[in-house]
Design goal:
25% of the residues lie in helices and 34% in strands. It has 9 helices and 20 strands. The chain is elongated and about 75 Å long. The two termini are 39 Å apart. It binds adenosine-5'-diphosphate and magnesium ion.
Length: 365
């Protein structure tokens, strides 16, 4: 049983506030991903959980134990960090076997465990080699194997596949997910790559500037981002954001922006807006993902819901096309199907799929 609990966790390096009072509960057996841009405090958080970095303030519980003052060796955690820290005089096999030998596992069990991980992580060909001559990608997988080979309550993996090429990274993503399922242990995974976080984790923790922005399932993070940062950080191509104001009607509302007005028929959203004060005087930003805008060639049906625009460029990307559309002096991205035909400077109309329309209050952002 290993829950991990962070309470008002702080980390300062001199004047740099790397982690600013984060609260988080990680359940036993959960696969949690910390996601955020470089410098947002992910590694500092991991190193504090591991016991490699002194805590400036707050508490860390692993299981039911307060571990603030416990040495790393007594926390029963396994770690793989972005910098590989392999032992140069040892072969790959011996590097991976090292933690098991330190714990006096029988040699035949060591052999079978190491070999099994070597197969999963595609290392069997290099077991007799030394770290020095290996590529960064190989070294990283050895480091990952060394972390996963042992029994631990919690596995801490900090950007463990960041140095692999795209194809290998995709394979390793799936392998890690399966390994988590087999081990049935708590895993905390750090990445700046949103695809990795969404693909693997049960729960994603989005961080920025040392503060947690949102905690949720991959679906919640993607479809219900709680603020502009999360909405903007997650999703590729990125979400469109447009400054607007809002007018409420009986069963619909109007988005007003750049001289356009677009009527949105969505009674649920209308009801929510009615609960707020000053809807009309507030400045808003609406967000819509490129896949949730539809292109029409004429405005025959329902012109009050359409945004007129002009095609600026079309990018065929194989299984989709990205269309850049100008409206006034602004632009929107639309992700459409490969069979879409459109030419530069062509007039078109865009329809917002209101189910996926997000509204952000500009002042609280
Ligand atoms: P991430 O892993 O998300 O990239 P880090 O936790 O490594 O973020 O860093 C968070 C902030 O703390 C950054 O501003 C970084 O420069 C700073 N920082 C990290 N480690 C140290 C250190 N040992 N000394 C001083 N500042 C540090
Ligand atoms: Mg880091």
């Amino acid at each position: 049983m290993a829950k991990v609990e962070l309470k008002k966790l702080w980390k300062k390096y001199g004047k740099v506030e790397a982690v600013k009072g984060i609260d988080l509960s990680i359940q036993d057996r959960e696969f949690v991903a910390f996601l955020g841009p470089s410098g947002c405090g992910k590694t500092s958080t991991m190193r504090m959980i591991a016991g490699l970095e002194k805590i400036t303030g707050g508490e860390i519980y692993i299981g039911d134990r307060l571990v603030n003052e416990l040495d790393p060796g007594t926390r029963n955690i396994a770690m793989a960090f972005e910098s590989y820290a392999l032992y140069p005089p040892m072969t790959v096999f011996d590097n991976i076997a090292f933690p098991l030998r330190a714990m006096k596992y029988p040699e035949n069990e060591i052999k079978s465990r190491v070999q099994r991980l070597a197969e999963i992580l595609e290392l069997t060909d290099i077991m007799a080699k030394y770290p020095k001559g290996l590529s960064g990608g190989h070294q990283q997988r050895v480091s990952l194997a060394r972390a996963l080979v042992r029994d631990a309550d919690v596995y801490l993996l900090d950007e463990p596949i960041s140095h692999l090429d795209t194809k290998m990274r995709n394979r390793m993503r799936a392998e890690l997910k399966r390994i988590h399922g087999e081990l049935g242990k708590t895993m905390i995974y750090v990445t700046h790559d949103q695809v990795e976080a969404l693909a693997m984790a049960d729960k994603v923790v989005v961080m920025n500037f040392g503060v947690i922005q949102q905690v949720g399932t991959p679906q919640e993070i993607y479809f219900k981002p709680q603020n502009l940062f999360v909405a903007d950080f997650v999703g590729e191509p990125p979400m469109n954001f447009v400054d607007c104001s809002i007018e409420l009607k009986e069963k619909s509302f109007i988005l007003l922006f750049s001289g356009h007005s677009v009527e949105i028929h969505d009674e649920q959203k209308v009801a929510k807006l009615r609960e707020l004060e000053n809807v009309l005087s507030k400045k808003w930003i609406f967000g819509i993902r490129p896949t949730n805008l539809q292109i029409f060639k004429d405005e025959s049906n329902n012109s009050s819901s359409l945004i007129p625009g002009i095609i600026y460029a079309v990018e065929p990307l194989g299984d989709s096309k990205i269309v850049h559309v100008l409206y006034g002096d602004k632009s929107l991205l639309i992700e459409t199907t490969p069979d879409f035909i459109g030419s530069e400077d062509e007039k078109i109309f865009l329809k917002i799929d209101s189910d996926y329309l997000l509204l952000f209050d500009k002042e609280t952002e």
